[in-house]
Design a protein that fits this description.
single chain, mainly alpha, Serine Threonine Protein Phosphatase 5, Tetratricopeptide repeat, 2 domains
């Protein structure tokens, strides 16, 4: 709990420190060189990383995870998917592998497969990604529902208090903000589901007294909006005006400064570059049996804890 509060303070102090919703290995000395804050990846740095990895070869599960993440961040989604499909076969009990392959399936436009793998991640380790993966899962469920009913967002919320019986507005805001910061570089406007998530995040932050952050996320929500979201949301222009008046009513010495929204540079925005899908779709990992299954599960759990 103390660790989570500490990270929350960092998030509030340094908004949008984005590492996408991927999970690289802990021994990757270049893990923070493949992106810039807050809405774009450093494409040149990723190209260099991928070139070096392919030149010298990828050895072991940790390097393979890093290579797959770098490919996905650069937009080579289906090449990354092939990497993680092989890892999923070799390490079917790894929450880290499940988290990454789920995110790549999301980028590949396969929300059903993404949902399967992120739920598997939660089963293997509910506290992976600080226990916030339920937010990503809810966005996938909303995408699937919206595909079936174009008006779904007008009558439904994307997020629910699904992780705990009781969650404070501040803890809810932490979970959503943690995921938003990691998903932001991968979401290109317009995106009605992401707009709804940002609007609900602003609602949680407003209730928690974080008005400067609520106003920031409302600006982002309006950028991603398509007008399909629930009427009267927190980021409705009328409600934004009310939020701004509440913010202005706080004595200047006590209120936190507003944060300037970072504009999206379309020339370096995220895009899927490869179009050749792999043969077949791996919805499920192999299920080993007996002593070998126990050994592989134990090895995967040890690696995820490192």
């Amino acid at each position: 709990m103390i660790k989570k509060k500490f990270i929350l303070l960092l998030l509030l102090a340094v908004p949008f420190f984005a590492n996408a919703c991927f999970h690289e290995s802990f021994n990757d000395t270049a893990r923070f060189k493949g992106f810039t804050r807050p809405r774009h990846f450093d494409l040149a740095a990723l190209d260099k990383l991928i070139f070096q990895e392919e030149l010298h070869g990828v050895h072991g599960w940790q390097d393979s995870i890093d290579h797959g993440v770098h490919l996905a961040k650069r937009g080579y989604v289906f090449r990354a998917l092939n990497v993680f499909r092989e890892l999923a076969r070799a390490y079917p009990y790894s929450a880290r592998v499940a988290a990454n392959i789920g995110t790549v399936y999301d980028l590949a436009g396969m929300p059903d497969s993404a949902l399967f793998w992120l739920r598997k991640e939660m089963e293997l380790n509910p506290e992976f990604h600080m226990g916030t993966e339920w937010v990503h899962i809810r966005t996938l469920e909303a995408k699937i529902a919206l595909a079936k009913d174009p008006d779904w967002l007008r009558t439904n919320r994307v997020l629910v208090r699904a992780r705990m019986p009781v969650m404070t507005e501040l803890s809810q805001a932490f979970d959503v903000m943690y995921q938003v910061e990691r998903l932001m570089p991968l979401r290109i406007p317009p995106d009605p589901v992401f707009a709804a998530v940002l609007s609900e995040l602003a609602e949680f932050q407003s209730s928690a007294g974080q008005l400067h952050l609520a106003l920031l996320h409302c600006e982002y929500a309006l950028e991603y909006s398509t007008g399909k979201e629930k009427p009267g949301s927190t980021c409705d222009p009328v409600v934004i005006g009310s939020l701004r008046r509440r913010y202005d009513s706080i004595p200047e010495a006590q209120r936190k400064p507003l944060i300037v929204k970072t504009e999206l540079d379309k020339s370096s925005a995220y895009a899927v570059l490869d179009s050749e899908k792999p043969n077949g779709v791996l919805h499920r990992s192999p299920t080993p049996h007996g002593k070998e299954a126990h050994r592989r599960k134990s090895r995967s759990n040890r690696r995820d804890r490192k």
